[in-house]
Design goal:
This protein is mainly beta and 227 residues long. The chain is built from one helix and 20 strands. Keywords: Membrane, Transmembrane, Transmembrane helix.
Length: 227
């Protein structure tokens, strides 16, 4: 490489002249940089997918996810989806209490990993004062980002003081301790029975609001009934 002074213009400067070998080295360096940039554009998305590949480990897992603990016992691949065996998700909300969901299996699409299709579901929601509401359903769709579980194939709910609720469909909002349904519902409580076109159940406040065509059959309260 040689450096020549340039006195032709008003401003002084230098002209750098590279040899043939130096120009070749510079070209190779620029080409390597271009290839590296293109490679990173491919590898970064693949790295994100690689995090999902952790589900392929056929052993028990326990992962902390945004304050909730997710665990499973094994995974297989079916039609491009991840099939998880005996998954469980549990967590604690500082104001609304503790929740837990279990299922026989869960299907997760890698394109929408925040949504999980659950089969044979059981769940529980415990309020800060210790009241427990239990849940059973054939299937459901769990949205991990929204902390929401939606049932479409029927669901039953059991709570304190003999509470029993049957619904065609329902949505559980864990953060708000709400169970909401806009389809026919049947509820029994201390021998009384209520049917309606919809319901909104707040498990934290022990409050139930029925909507639509509401029918009530009340049974006299026995002295042996307790809170």
């Amino acid at each position: 490489m040689s450096v020549d002074a340039d006195h032709a213009g008003q401003s002084r400067g230098f002209v750098v002249q590279l040899s043939t070998e130096e120009r070749a080295r510079a070209f190779r360096a620029a080409r390597r940089h271009s290839i590296a940039v293109k490679t990173l554009k491919v590898l970064l998305p693949l790295a994100a997918l690689g995090m999902v590949s952790l589900y392929f480990i056929p052993t028990r897992l326990a992962i902390e996810i945004d304050g909730a603990t997710a665990s499973l016992e094994g995974v297989s691949v079916e039609s491009g989806n991840l099939k998880m065996v005996n998954p469980k998700l549990s967590g604690m909300h500082p104001d609304y209490g503790r929740y837990e969901i279990r299922a026989d299996t869960a299907m997760q699409n890698v394109d929408t990993p925040q949504k999980v299709l659950l089969d044979a579901i059981t769940g529980s929601l415990v309020s800060p004062d210790g009241d427990t509401t239990r849940l059973q359903a054939l299937s459901g769709l769990f949205d991990t980002e929204a902390q929401r579980l939606t049932f479409q194939d029927g669901v039953s709910i059991e709570g304190r003081a003999g509470l029993s609720v049957k619904l065609r469909s329902a949505t559980v909002h864990f953060a708000d301790q709400l169970i909401v349904s806009d389809e026919p519902v049947s509820m029994q409580f201390r021998g009384s029975r209520i049917t309606a076109d919809g319901v909104r159940l707040n498990t934290g406040k022990a409050r139930v609001v029925f909507s639509g065509d509401v029918k009530v059959r009340l049974e006299p309260r026995r002295e042996t009934d307790t809170q």
